[in-house]
From TrEMBL:
One Pfam family recorded for the sequence: LANC_like
Keyword Metal-binding: yes
UniProt cross-references to InterPro entries, sorted A to Z: LanC, LANC-like
Keyword Zinc among record annotations: yes
A GO biological-process term: peptide modification
Example GO molecular function: metal ion binding
Lineage: Bacteria, Bacillati, Actinomycetota, Actinomycetes, Micromonosporales
Binding residues for Zn(2+): C284, C333, H334
UniProtKB keywords: Metal-binding, Zinc
Protein name according to UniProt: Lanthionine synthetase C family protein
Length: 428
């Protein structure tokens, strides 16, 4: 890839190799295939939608993949979540409808009803859990499985609806401390490890800082909603509370600020967390995702100091050979494409000097998707054949979408990544 403005060629090459949803080389018989935004059809459909929206590939192909999304029963209720079932399918159809107003209206109406019903159920259960003084599960509030991910969809589709306000009110309450057995813990402290299960190396649980599974995700949603003018009582205070927590655990190194992925119970009691200088920076965990979430928070709070600090932190992280060496794959979730995408999104809202640095770094990061210079077609084939597969979070479709977004060919103000809380579009 020779320059960021040509990166759309990789997106086109990936899409051309994923032209048919019934291709027997794809895992079409896996039960998760049709409904998984992370791994399956919805994420690949997003790539085709975005390419069709800019005229690089036909809408007919996008419609073929969208038909595959809606071709069977849809999982709703407790067995669904933002990246599987009704919310996942709703996200890709809503993105398509944004480019083709009126399209998929009937299907979206049904999915919107299912998502709203599930949001109410989840919020009610979460408040009952808080009332009982119990610790939350990560899946209660996070971006991938929880109410933050549900809220990301609602902000896209129904920002002024009662369910959106209910999610925000819950997230405000999530930032208030809990007092199990007389010990003060942040309201998002979970009794499990980062996997969501009890782990011996996390005695007493942990406080997760990341975007995908931790408190940076709720902060990004609270900030995005505030920037859109959707504000409930205590929302700005909640954003400040999370910022204070992140400040408390930040380590200032010669490569810039670094935030821990999580804080353990022993570290909480010692008031000191272990942070590795060479830890990977990514969307899901680490500096890149943290910076975008904090940049949005700074914009919502009009905090010019924080904004300057975190924007500079991203430039330094993406220029640091130790942190870059920890990035070993091209994926959107935790690879070079994800770093390029976040740098591109941060640059759009950054101070001018920082924005210039970040745009130069985007090109370098995208070059790492094809480090041997084999060209878009061969690079795309390698991505699909890789362990990450064809999907959105860890596979070829996500790399293609990031490459397209960073190119001059992308639709301005697109919202395909609203499920990641990295964009700042104009909502309806």
């Amino acid at each position: 890839m020779r320059a960021a403005h040509e990166s759309h060629e990789l997106a086109v090459a990936v899409a051309d190799l994923l032209a048919h949803p019934d291709d027997p080389r794809l895992p079409i018989h896996q039960p998760w295939w049709r409904q998984s935004l992370a791994l399956g059809v919805p994420g690949i459909a997003l790539l085709h939608v975005e390419l069709a929206a800019v005229g690089l590939r036909p809408w007919q192909r996008a419609h073929r993949w969208l038909a595959a999304v809606t071709s069977g029963p849809v999982t709703t209720g407790p067995d669904s979540h933002p990246f599987h079932g009704a919310p996942a399918l709703a996200h890709v159809l809503a993105c398509a409808a944004a480019h083709q107003p009126g399209a998929y209206a009937r299907a979206l109406d049904g999915l919107d009803t299912a998502v709203a019903t599930d949001a109410r159920r989840r919020v009610t259960a979460a408040h009952a859990r808080i009332d009982a003084g119990r610790l939350p599960a990560l899946a209660e509030f996070d971006v991938i499985r929880g109410l933050t991910g549900i809220g990301a969809y609602l902000l896209h589709r129904a920002p002024n609806g009662p369910e959106m306000r209910a999610v925000l009110q819950y997230l405000v309450r999530l930032t208030q401390p809990l007092h199990p057995k007389g010990e003060v813990l942040p309201g998002w402290w979970t009794g499990s490890g980062p996997t969501g299960r009890a782990e011996a190396r996390f005695p007493g649980g942990h406080g997760n800082s990341g975007v995908a599974h931790g408190i940076a995700g709720p902060m990004a949603l609270l900030a995005l909603a505030a920037l859109h003018g959707v504000v409930v009582d205590g929302q700005l205070t909640a954003i400040s509370t999370i910022c204070t927590w992140l400040d408390q655990w930040r380590s200032d190194t010669d490569a810039g600020p670094i935030w821990p992925y999580w804080v353990t119970r022993p570290e909480l009691r010692a008031d000191r967390a272990e942070v590795h200088r060479d830890q990977r920076s990514s969307w899901c965990y680490g500096t890149a995702g943290m910076v975008r979430a904090q940049q949005l928070a700074a914009l919502a709070l009009n905090d010019t100091v924080r904004r300057a600090v975190v924007e500079d932190a991203l430039v330094r992280a993406l220029s640091d050979p130790h942190q870059l060496a920890a990035t070993t794959n091209p994926s959107l979730c935790h690879g070079h494409a994800g770093l390029a995408h976040i740098a591109h999104r941060v640059a759009a809202d950054a101070l001018p000097d920082i924005a210039q640095h970040l745009r130069a770094l985007v090109t370098r990061l995208l070059d790492q998707v094809d480090p041997k210079g084999v060209g878009p077609r061969r690079a795309a084939a390698a991505l699909i054949a890789d362990a990450g597969g064809p999907g959105l979070l860890e596979g070829a479709a996500g790399v293609g979408l990031a490459a397209l977004s960073c190119s001059g060919a992308a639709v301005p103000n697109n919202s395909w990544d609203s499920c990641l809380l990295t964009n700042r579009p104009s909502y309806p």
